[in-house]
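Hi V.,

You were right to ask for the full record rather than a summary. Here it is.
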Amino acid sequence: MENNILSVKDLTVHYVTSDAGVCRAVNHISFDLKKGETLGLVGETGAGKTTVALSILSLLQSPPGKIISGNIEYEGKDLLKAGRAEMRKIRGKQISMVFQDPMTALNPVDCVGDQILEVLYLHQKISKKEAKIKAIEMLEMVGISGERYNEYPHQFSGGMKQRVVIAMALACSPKILLADEPTTALDVTIQAQVLDMMNDLKKNLDTSVVLITHDLGVVAQMCDRVAIMYAGEIVELGSAEQIFDQTAHPYTVGLFNSLPGYVKDSKRLKPIKGLMPDPANLPEFCKFAPRCEYKCERCEKELPELMELEEGHFVRCLHPHKKGVK
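Predicted structure:
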């Protein structure tokens, strides 16, 4: 579709290790990102969310990581076929990433202002003086006084470090922002401030966002569409309203059932039994079947395809729910 700025098609990524063998981290993932949209990638740790983001930016460490198949089209170009020089021009300028841990995303021996300046100087063909002025503007845009330009990362709190990382990612007004758990380890009030700021910047800069998270509250606040990931696959994909109000996959139902206060008349939390399967030893049938309370004999024999329940709402299940979470 012309409205899509990014299209990921049939992406498969493996990690080849000497001890565990082949870990199938991402398996035949497909999704589109529309212009100005926020898409949530939701799932447990180990579901493959970060691997998808690193693959988009060609930042996957190889070895052990290896893209087995697929296409990642950005404005009609297949990023998997782009050379290193071309990706350096795209990365940071057109597609940026907020990494999961702001503590390690910043260089401890450079002042925060110069780290933003470097991004601008490399990509925008402006003088260092002009880049410094813009870097100060970016700091102030994320709520940090320009007077703190020469301070070092250790002089900032966790929330302030995250603001600096976001300022770096948005310095060149990218068309796509990949935000990997941008509010992890932040207290609730700082989390709300960071999310509000990201929403404002998205509107002001008309940026498309891929938001990686396991926090369904953040998803409800930020996302237009949601992709639920499990064991390297998308098991449910739809608008935020479809995912929250017409939940179809048993795993998604389990996520909501485990939230305090989400299910009416529930006096106890209902956790999902068991653990996600080992990516080095994935079953050849439904990946969620070993933990699913609704499984039947077919579920442990067949690998379900992603099917469309209604326009824009897809689910990978042989027996999808039709009434959502009760």
